[in-house]
Amino acid sequence: MKQHTGKKALGAALLSASMLFASHAFASGTEQLKQFVSQVHAARGDFTQQEVKAPGKANNGASTTMPATGATSSGTFMFARPGKFVWSYEKPYSQVLQADGDKLYVYDKDLNQVTVRSLGGALGASPAAILFGSNDLDKNFTLRDAGVKGGIDWLELTPKAKDTQFQTVGIGFKDGNLQAMELHDVFGNVTLLTFSNIQKNPPLKSDSFKFTVPKGADVING
Hints:
Elements: H1 2-25, H2 29-39, E1 42-52, E2 68-80, E3 84-91, E4 95-100, E5 103-108, E6 113-118, H3 127-132, H4 137-140, E7 141-149, E8 152-159, E9 166-174, E10 177-185, E11 190-200, E12 218-221
Parallel strand pairs: 6-12
Antiparallel strand pairs: 1-2, 1-11, 2-3, 3-4, 4-5, 5-6, 7-8, 8-9, 9-10, 10-11
């Protein structure tokens, strides 16, 4: 009987230790983001993008309860750090944002038009830098944990540069997995991105991010 009780006590202790370890491993949104950036060098998955109401002054930071008020779009994404990605809108319209590490291409299928820009330091303090850039987040952002909402651990990133389009970026993780991003721009607009079907560090072909201008498309440099 004592042996049985001892095993139960040991099992309970191991369970408590594993739970403590898990809470340590994913103790905050900030820790989960840093782990994601350091360990996930490439990924692909699906996204849904919603335009939502700007929060009131008393409700700054990440939230998961703001009602959708504008357009909703969806598509797929793929990236490999640093600076290579394909962000493809599929519904309700088709548009592709693609970067090969050197240049950024924006292809509007309806207009059959490609805009080409130098990627350079454009990622910088933009939301794209968080997912697609290098792992020097502390250089470009101030990170702050924003608590748990709806079972998701949120953190808030504030760009250190003063000339960015975004005031803050909220990011939500659950058990180390990217769940959502909330983009707060300087005009008070908020865009919510939710992610699904994410594959971490999948095998990618060497030419996955090479952009080929569609036949007959107009090319605009700028």
